[in-house]
Amino acid sequence: MLEQASRFEAGVWDIKYGPGWSGGRVMKKYLAELIGTFALVLFGCGSAAIAGAHIGFHGIAIAFGLAVTVMVYSIGAISGCHINPAITVSMLVARKINGKDAVGYIIAQCIGAIIAAAVLFIIASGKAGYDIGVNGLGQNGYGVHSPDGYSLLACFVADVVLTFLFLFVIFGSTHINAPKGFAGLAIGLSLAVIHLVGIPITGTSVNPARSLGPAVFVGGDALSQLWLFILAPLIGGILAAIVWQGLFDKNKQV
After folding, report:
1. 249 to each of 81, 173, 198, 245, 252, how far by Cα in Å?
2. Whole-angstrom Cα distance, residue 138 to residue 38?
3. Hey, how many other C-beta atoms are within 10 angstroms of the C-beta on 176?
4. Torsion sign across C-alpha atoms 51, 57, 61, 66
5. pLDDT tens readout for residues 4-58
6. Is residue 205 a contact partner of residue 233, using CB atoms and an 8 Å limit?
7. Contact, 229 vs 158, CB < 8 A?
8. Which of 172, 182, 208, 210 could staple 230 via S-S, CB 3.0–4.6 A?
9. Smallest Cα–Cα separation from 136: which of 120, 148, 151?
10. Other C-beta atoms lying within 10 Å of the C-beta of residue 56
């Protein structure tokens, strides 16, 4: 366990594997990403769709943060716990993951998110009076579908900036020179803070897979607006990789 924790803190987010990694072990990484993303969407979006009226924005933000924290410590030593295509693309740009694994990760993340949304829909539908068109599944939106009515531009800028800051925390807290043992806490707390700010704006995405899952089942405008919650997080993640690598990473981990 200590060895696994050491590997994680020393930069398991880098995910550079040598010839000793068998095909079965590679599939375990992808399965870990699928399960991790499933948990994030089920707990995070579930807190909004099922418990939102009871716990409010603050509770939803904490749920997302805690979901990421527990997954970091659960699957971090297996896959690095990206559970977010924006993180995977950012790590690809930073040359901390190869292209083949990046594609496998993103596919697994999207599948996990869709399965979680399906399970969440089944559970939510068990309550009398539930209407997915009215109650939703914690999907994201802009304009008339923004929780507080924010414009397309405001929502786009918010998701780019919030994703940038999220990835900046990830790069910093998992760097080889960072204090050991605290990366999961830093990452989870940062996501909770991001949700505190972002929920009134878009419902908070910063994760294309998290947005994809609910949108597939809600359909309509949730699907037509999905492009923003794919593009904006990817831009934010790429910018974070460029800035971190160019200005802050004095000890390159390639």
Report:
1. 21, 12, 28, 5, 6
2. 14
3. 13
4. negative
5. 333 444 344 444 444 444 567 789 999 999 999 999 999 999 999 999 999 999 9
6. yes
7. no
8. 208
9. 120
10. 12
Alpha carbons 90 and 237: distance in angstroms, whole number: 5
The C-alpha atoms of residue 143 and residue 132 are separated, in whole angstroms, by 19
Domains in the chain, CATH or no CATH each: 8-248 (1.20.1080.10)
Model-level pTM greater than 0.70?
yes
Residue bearing tokens 């030593």: 77
- The number of C-alpha atoms within 13 Å of 4 and in the hemisphere containing its C-beta is 10
Give the torsion sign (CA, 106, 146, 121, 133).
Answer: negative
Tokens at 242, concatenated: 């460029």
Residue in this structure with the two tokens 């399970």, named with its chain if needed: 119
> First vs last Cα of the chain: how many Å apart?
25
Specify the residue for token string 């009215």.
Answer: 134
Summarize pLDDT for 103-132 with one digit per residue, the tens. Answer: 999 999 999 999 999 999 999 999 999 999
